[in-house]
Amino acid sequence: MSELREVIGALQGDADFKAEMRIARVFHETVGRDNDMHMIDVLASGVAHDFNNRLQTMASALSLMRVHVAAGRASDLGSLIEVAERSLVSAGKLAHRLMTVARKPVHQSDNLFQLNDALLSMSDLLRCVLGEGIVLRLALSDSETRIRCDSHLLECAIINLVMNSRDAMPLGGIITIETSKSHSPKGDDGQEYVSLCVTDSGCGITSDILEKIFEPFFTMKPQGVGTGLGLPMIHHFVDQARGHIEVHSMPQQGTCIKLYLPTAAES
Ligand SMILES: Nc1ncnc2c1ncn2[C@@H]1O[C@H](COP(=O)(O)OP(=O)(O)OP(=O)(O)O)[C@@H](O)[C@H]1O
Ligand SMILES: [Mg+2]
């Protein structure tokens, strides 16, 4: 900033073209650096947010294990142990991401996999996140089309969507996760997509709130409950995967958030 002040001084004293060019360069560098730092701050907070989600899923699995052990239902423990282990592995990956986010903030892995398989493998974990009172329905397409993106970050995105739906239904309700093959929602761009739609029967979102929900740190939840980082993290992931997001919502009726992810070219 001191260089910027020095150039402003030079410009005020002697309006010379070279100084003007220099101020443009310095301003660009300073603002650019501030923007980069802001993006790193948001990303680091977002990764910490997803890490915390994983701690919550681990805590839910452990408390369910305690209930099952107390009731003598040892046969149900296997799937809960898997949920806790999966959460632990994910938390480890997120901790690593947190340590490297300032060095390579846009790095995402590239895995080739079927969306339906990913969802099926998460169903116990998602039921654990939801607890009692919320019914989870999976309506999976019969397509075996594969997508290419970071499967771990997709899992984090699905958990964020499902947690938002859960929070929108404090008295319980239904969450449906549907997959299908689609075209781009923005008109035909020559690319095929697989869509993942999470629909709930919750409180819905009013139109004035709808325009803000992807802003980092925007939340309607009480302080200490929501951080407003779930949807920005989903947006970042979908952007990196070259996909699209659509939100449809009706106050008092429910919300549907649809992710479009490009299908991988079959070789
Ligand atoms: N399914 C939904 N139904 C109703 N409102 C929603 C839904 N999903 C998101 N929202 C609204 O969007 C806001 C932002 O969501 P986001 O996931 O970014 O943050 P958050 O859920 O408030 O906080 P956190 O993710 O840290 O718990 C929410 O506070 C809520 O008002
Ligand atoms: Mg959220």
Could you explain the architecture of this structure?
This protein has 267 residues and is α+β, with helices and mostly antiparallel strands. The protein has two domains: 2-100; 111-262, Histidine kinase-like ATPase, C-terminal domain (Heat Shock Protein 90), CATH 3.30.565. The protein contains seven helices and seven strands. A hairpin with a 3-residue loop joins strand 6 (244-250) and strand 7. The longest helix has 54 residues, at 17-70. The chain is globular, with a radius of gyration of 22 Å. 26% of the residues are buried. Residues 160, 163-164, 230 line the site of magnesium ion. Magnesium ion is lined by residues 160, 163-164, 230.
Low-confidence runs: 1-28
Largest sheet: 5 strands, mixed
Question: Could you spell the SSE succession in H and E letters?
Answer: HHHEHEEHEEHHEE
Q: How would the global form be characterised?
A: globular
Intertermini distance: 52 Å
CATH C-level class of the largest domain = Alpha Beta
Question: What is the count of structural domains?
Answer: 2
Number of helical stretches of at least 4 residues:
7
CATH topology of the largest domain: Heat Shock Protein 90
Strand order of the largest sheet: 2-4-5-7-6
The name of the CATH superfamily of the largest domain reads Histidine kinase-like ATPase, C-terminal domain
Beta-strand content bin? 15-25%
Number of strands: 7
Secondary-structure class:
alpha+beta
